[in-house]
Design goal:
Protein name: Maleylpyruvate isomerase family mycothiol-dependent enzyme
Pfam families: MDMPI_N (PF11716)
Keywords: Isomerase, Pyruvate
InterPro entries: DinB/YfiT-like, Maleyloyr_isom, MDMPI_metal-binding
Number of helices: 9
CATH class of the largest domain: Mainly Alpha
Structural class: alpha+beta
Number of strands: 7
CATH architecture of the largest domain: Up-down Bundle
Helix content: 40-55%
CATH topology of the largest domain: Four Helix Bundle (Hemerythrin (Met), subunit A)
GO molecular function: isomerase activity; metal ion binding
């Protein structure tokens, strides 16, 4: 089943998905009271305002490459250097009013859109293949923007969940998230979940973004399980003894789990086939933090 709606593949489509997700964070922020900004979210240690601070801080760094000198305490949720890096922007704005942080994000989004489109007077398209900085290392601009869109949409959903205002589950950001999840699903099943050879695992996402990803697990030359994507148009040799397991869940449930928000038992899902394999896959579905 082709994914629907499909994730944007061209650079202008990806820029628009990025803009929509970031604007959604801004719009949600404008609707927040002081009490709303203080609400805890599913991201450990972060409030609604902290989520906005993270987005504005990282987008500012993407433009300038400079980080303020801020002492980050040893919070329990800061577990590695990347976590400490992203915490800097949150700590810097810890005593700033939420509405001021939202206004800052509005300014930064306008600047980023000029960077990504060339501005209103642009005569040539932006080179989407040029290499830019990201927290995970240098990447081509189009790949970096895909990562940023996925990340910002994830934090938009964190804010929506905390405020009780669901939405944008059929947006470009949602489609990007599901598309990236499907692309890494073979590794998650075979290596992270260590599902043994002889198993076929299918993930059925029921919507609003709909799609299906499948993995046939075989033993590779190094003796480790290897995931072969199904539904890719490439034929593979199966085995009549292969065990099939299908996991079915909504876009919200799958993306929350893949973002590491809550446990397997916090989402609704069903399985046909080997429920032990299904749970093992869901427990190891996290690829965003």
């Amino acid at each position: 089943m082709p994914q629907h709606p499909a994730a944007p593949e061209d650079f202008p489509g990806l820029v628009e998905a990025y803009r929509q997700a970031t604007q959604a964070v801004i719009d949600l922020g404008h609707s927040c009271s002081d009490a709303d900004f203080d609400r805890p979210t599913a991201a450990p240690g972060w409030t609604v305002k902290d989520q906005v601070s993270h987005v504005v801080g990282l987008e500012s760094w993407m433009r300038s490459g400079s980080q303020p000198r801020v002492e980050v305490p040893d919070y329990p949720h800061v577990r590695n250097e990347l976590g400490r890096f992203t915490e800097v922007a949150v700590e810097q704005r810890r005593r700033v009013r939420g509405d001021k942080v939202v206004a800052e994000l509005e300014t930064v989004l306008a600047q980023r859109m000029d960077d990504l489109t060339g501005g209103p007077d642009a005569t040539e398209p932006v080179d989407s293949t040029r290499v830019v900085r990201t927290p995970l290392g240098d990447r081509p601009l189009i790949d970096a923007l895909r990562i940023r869109t996925l990340d910002i949409w994830t934090h938009e959903q964190d804010i929506r969940q905390a405020l009780g205002r669901p939405g944008d589950l059929d947006s470009g950001g949602a489609a990007v998230f599901v598309d990236v999840l499907f692309s890494v699903f073979p590794r998650l099943v075979a290596r992270d979940a260590a599902v043994p050879p002889g198993n076929v695992v299918i993930l059925e996402v029921t919507g609003p973004v709909k799609g299906r990803a499948g993995v046939w697990v075989e033993q590779s030359d190094d003796g480790l399980p290897r995931g072969i994507p199904l539904f890719s148009g490439v034929a593979h040799d199966g085995d009549p003894d292969d065990v099939f397991t299908t996991i079915t869940a909504s876009t919200d449930a799958v993306t929350r789990r893949a973002a590491g928000r809550g446990t397997v038992d916090d989402i609704h899902w069903t399985a046909q086939g080997d429920e032990h394999v299904a749970r093992r896959v869901l427990e190891n579905l996290v690829f965003v933090s």
